[in-house]
Amino acid sequence: MAGDLFRVFGTISLARFRTGTPAKFRPPARALFTRVLIGTLVSGPLLFASQRAGAAPTRLMLDLASQRPGSVTTLTVDPGVLALMVVNRVPGAAYSHSILRRTSVIKGFDDQWPTLGPPKTAPAGLIADPCDTAMVRLLKDVNSAKTEDQIGAIRSSWRRRLANGKCPTGVQSQFASMLDSVSTLSLEATIRAGEEVIVTISREDKSHDVSFTWTWKFDTKPRGTWLTTYGVALVPKRDERYSLRPSSVAGEFAITPSERRRGEFHYLPSLFFTWLPERRALQDWSVGPTAGFGAQTQTFAVYVGLSALYNMNVAVSVGGSFSLATRLSDKYRSGGTVRENLTDDQLHRKTVLPTWYCSVTFRLGKSPFQSSDSGQAGAAKDKGGAH
Q1: Of 21, 135, 180, 290, most Cβ neighbours within 10 A?
Q2: Is the pTM here over 0.90, yes or no?
């Protein structure tokens, strides 16, 4: 949606500029650029927000039989909702669980697990049905299980055992539902980028006065990274210079505006820091917020805008800027007169004014603005420190 908004905005602006409208009614290039810049700044946040919607939950199985008690398993997952299934619990055992996030803890609680009914036995003198016999043995094994390994073995073999007993599909489905109800637990947790979620499952064995604990840690990849790029920024000049000319009164000088040249720019060597989210790191093109600064003799500028990165190495950026400009000193006014011939520094003042900028930058191994002498001095220092 954000991309469509930007395309429509830009298309309307370009269409109005390119049609057969008389030249005096056509918007100047600066107005056209302002429209495109506003469209970019408006569509950027909408584009970021649209990419976060519609994420499906991540489904994971926590197997108590395959992981040894007391061990910790760490998994890296994507940010979002975690749908966790705890399997191979011992029926009737006292379990508790907790889900710990970086800033909050969901306290564990004891669940009263249902147990399967006593196994049915065939009346004396009757020949037991093979399916009934297989079912009775399975129920007996489930009720007598004391460890998660035993439940895991039952869960991996019950289908084969019931099939050997020639149990119909409906009976197998009923047993599967009963086994899931007493040996599994569904949990849900939400993890954000940069967070860690710790899931702990505990079982107390009161007969031996011991407890068993299983722990899983879920973390995410870094939310993103800051990329440093170097290049040149184009910043409009906003100087207003004045000069002194002899007036009609002897000994007085008139303060006269100098001719302003429109379309003049500063070309500033600049340094930019651009945020690259992890989810867009592998894309050819990615858009991210950027900030930076540039400087040259007697001028500087700071930038805030959006950068379009191509494979993390080339960036084109547009946005707003605050740059140094020359204006008439507050002591004087345009068209006024003075009785002394002032220097340029006395007549003018420096101030910081808002404007726009655009830039092209590159991701390099080191700053191209660093002198070779300082690099050689640093290398010599490192070499000297090695002895």
Answers
A1: 290
A2: no
